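Summary for the lay section of the report: proteins are chains of building blocks that fold into shapes. Here we show the chain for S-formylglutathione hydrolase FrmB and then a coded description of the shape we predicted for it.
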Amino acid sequence: MCRISRGTGVGTVQEGVAGRGVRHDPGVRLRALPVVVGVALLVVGCSAPPSHRTMPEHRRSPSAGSSPSTTTSTTSSTTSTTASASPSPSRTPDGQRFTTVNFGAEDVRETTLHGATSGVSMKVWVWTPPQYDDPRYAHTEFPVLFLYPGGDGATYNNWTDRSYSAQEVVDQGSRDGSVLPFVFVMPEMQVSKDVDTECTDLPGQPAVGTFLDTDVPAMVQHDFRVLPPGKGWGTAGASSGAYCAAAIALRHPGEYGAVVSIAGYFDMETNLPHKAPAVQALYPSALAPGFGGTLAWLLVAGTDSPEDVTQAQRFSALVTAPSSAQVALQDGGKHLTTSFKAAMPQVFAFFSQHLQAPVSSR
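The coded shape description reads as follows.
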């Protein structure tokens, strides 16, 4: 049985622990980080024994306050709210072209990426921290997070707006040294609301898995100053986005250093016709036991959403060394955007502990 202790557990990681052994940009300082933020979030280092799976309602969208309608309407290929032209941030003349858009939070770069490998075309949004465009960091490579939304993720990604306040947390935290200055990469997750692939290449469907795990990272490495794959890369998602983050990281050992699942699930048994053994073998729940790399996992679940707690605990039991998993329980948390938002300080503290700090080439 898993023993859950009430109260606040706080630990620290010393400055520079993330990415030790590399030369950090001298202007980026990481002070001691809280391992647990707030009294409502409990980190549990154990998990429930595996038992019969009871899957949540498939592809659950977060409830109150989480409608993507604003994002959906503003991410049209022809119009976008407060959109204005912006120079491409690419390193080379043939880089991807971006415009600047704002969904009520901070400016993000937007592009439609035509995947050279997948043949899939979808939008990708990129947010860079305040240090990125500072001339003092012109020769600095930054850690990068690939972030996936809840719901179907067609035409929107709610990491781009104030749904989670993720940009604000990292903006402020990177200025005061409490978190690393991460680059956010926020792609669409489906080509259509009617084509549900769970970020996986499914028979007879668009190769969305290849788009997300091959084409998007290739574009980011080509056009942005980010650290190479490995300890400088992390991925996270909420609800269905957590499934995607987990699946993509597990399909590519060595490319990611840390994964955060917020109210996630780890197989797609419901409402999908593609249950062939070859597809089931790609479920995170199937990939985790034999995973050949090293990943640090944070599995966030609200205590008022028992199925989310069960999913986190069961998956934690599947994670084997040298990977590690922590289950973080939000006291009173629900499968709601408001609960996901409340977890953001813990999410970025975790990534700052486990991922490499920015590195200067000079």
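Put simply, here is one thing we learned. The radius of gyration is 19 Å.
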